[in-house]
Amino acid sequence: MSVGIARAGLADTTASLVVFAGAVLMACLGLLLAGAATVIIWRTGRGGTGKIISAIFLAALLLVYPAWLTVQAVRLPALNDVSTDLIDPPDFARSSRALAARNQLAHGTIPQAWREAQRRAYPQVQPILIDLEGDEAWHIVQKAVEARKWHIIDQVQPGGRTRIGHIDAVDRSLVMGFPDDVTIRLRPLAGQTRIDIRSASRMGRHDFGDNARRIQRFAQELQTQLDAR
Question: I want to staple 98 with a disulfide (CB 3.0 to 4.6 A). Which of 147, 149, 154, 187 is the partner?
Answer without folding.
Answer: 154
